[in-house]
Design a protein that fits this description.
Blueprint: H1 2-13, H2 17-33, H3 38-47, H4 51-57, E1 61-62, H5 65-85, E2 92-98, H6 102-118, E3 121-127, H7 133-145, E4 151-154, H8 164-169, H9 182-190, H10 198-209, E5 218-222, H11 229-236, E6 246-250, H12 257-262, E7 266-269, E8 287-290, E9 294-297, E10 305-308, H13 313-316, E11 322-323, H14 330-348
Parallel strand pairs: 1-11, 2-3, 2-4, 5-6, 5-7, 7-8, 8-11
Antiparallel strand pairs: 9-10
Helix pairs in contact: 1-4, 3-4, 5-14, 10-14
Bound molecules: nicotinamide-adenine-dinucleotide.
Length: 349
Amino acid sequence: MTGNLAKAAKVVHCSARRSRVFFIKCVWQYCVNGKECAEKMELALNRFSMPAIRAIFAPMQILDGTAVAAHIKAQIKEEAAAMKASGGKTPHLAAVLVGNDPASEAYVGSKVRTCEELGFGSTLIRLEASITEGELLEVVKKLNADPEVNGILVQLPLPKHISDDIIINNIDPKKDVDGFHPISQGKMLLGQPGFLPATPYGILLMLEHYNIDTTGKHCVVIGRSNIVGTPMTVLMSRNSNPGNATVTICHSKTTNLKEMVLSADIIIAAIGRPRFVTADMVKEGAIVIDVGINRIDDPTRKSGSRLVGDVDFDNVAPKCSYITPVPKGVGPMTICGLMKNTLLAAKQA
Ligand code: NAD
């Protein structure tokens, strides 16, 4: 503890007067109340953006997507039940799965199970991979016209002969609970209320839950897809909480990627490459959000494989203030984003 205090005092010496006064208060509280005040102090340290001191008193924290999702799902379930009790609609999600890609099967399965858990209605439409674009469009049009269906989700990726854009553009924007329709994306860009893309929305809910203040921080998003990277940059740079950061977007053609990522207070990796972000790319105290889901061989597992993220978790985690694991990090939060959108769609129907 004495060594830690000396180290902290050195950091504080360079800080603003306000921070010094605050630090002395924190140390006093810590000495008097010990661990009881640790949580309060952690919130305060976040607010004052003092990562160096934070690292001494509050070690790395896992952002537990499963636990946060359970909390949010309980709220959604309660709201949906109250809506039904007062004569309103039961939210209903229709999921369309084309082909039988195992990962897509798993994602859709867990979305349908979550609907059941929350008391939502759900319909799963399974279609052959050989279906034509025109036939799929007919399915979407029927769902658009069905008054029982509030939300439509077409699981991506679609087979190569079908255009994602054409299918998404034909979903009724009032039922676009994945938030991929140009109208949803346009509203998001303009800061108007609407459906936010489910994964970035889930990440915002996670940051909000942990009271992570992003104001003025440098956020580096790696990846520029329409469903994760690009909307994430928009949401992280809006003049609102939790997204109020200075944002840099990096992608496959970025030449100084390591330098960029090293300068980040917040790293959001959405690349689709196993353990791409290594410890030498991450500064001490950074907040790391790992969106990637990659299956790699693992002969020690019965299945012969396991899931890893885009971040080299084992080596990066010790340097972070916060980090999401894979699995059980962003994945469950994506489903929360989708369910919140479906509830909103039912309210507005
Ligand atoms: P994508 O393939 O559409 O986009 C990947 C992006 O990474 C591209 O914009 C590309 O420019 C960038 N990229 C590729 N190689 C790069 C490199 N060497 N350096 C820098 N940038 C590079 O993928 P996506 O749909 O955005 O998904 C990304 C990852 O997130 C995937 O692993 C996907 O499975 C996962 N994902 C997870 C969730 C979730 O809920 N956890 C949701 C959606 C996607």
